[in-house]
Amino acid sequence: MSFTRRTFVGGALATPFIASLPRAARAAGSVLRVIPHADLKNIDPIWTTAYITRNHGYLVFDTLFAMDETLTPRPQMVDTWTVSDDRLTWTFTLRDGLAWHDGPPVTAEDCVASLKRWGKRDGMGQKLMQYTASLEAKDAKTFVLKLEKPFGLVLDAIGKISSNVPFMMPKRLAETDPFQQIPEVIGSGPFRFVKEEWVPGSKVVYAKNEKYVPRKEPASAAAGGKIAKVDRVEWLYIPDPTTAMNALISGEVDYYEQVPGDLAPLVAQSPGITVEVLDPLGSQGMLRFNHLLKPFDKAEIRRAVIAAVDQEKFLQAGVGNPDFYKKCESYFPCGSPLESDAGLDMVRPGGIERAKKMLADAGYDGTKVVLMQPSDIPITSAFSLVAAETMRAIGMPVEVQAMDWSTITSRRAKKDPVDQGGWNVFHTWWIGGDLVNPIAAVGLSGGGDKAWFGWPNDAKIEELRDKFAFSSSAEEQKALGREIQKRAIEIGTHANVGTFFVPCGYRENVKGLIKSPVQFFWNVSV
Amino acid sequence: MWMFIGRRALATIPVMLVVAFVVFMILRLSPGDPATVIAGDYASSADIERIRAQLGLNEPIAVQFFTWIGRLVRGDLGISIFSNLPVTQLIGQRLEPTMLLTLTTVVFSVLIAVPMGAIAAWKAGSWIDRSVMVFAVLGFSIPVFVLGYFLVYGFSMQLKWLPVQGFRSPADGLWPFVRHITLPTLTLSAFYIALVARITRASVLEVLEEDYIRTARAKGQVESRVLLVHALRNAAVPIVTVIGLGIAVLIGGVVVTESVYNIPGLGRLVVDAILKRDYPIIQGLILFFSFLYILLNLLIDIVYTLIDPRIRY
Question: Is this complex's ipTM strictly greater than 0.90?
Answer without folding.
Answer: no
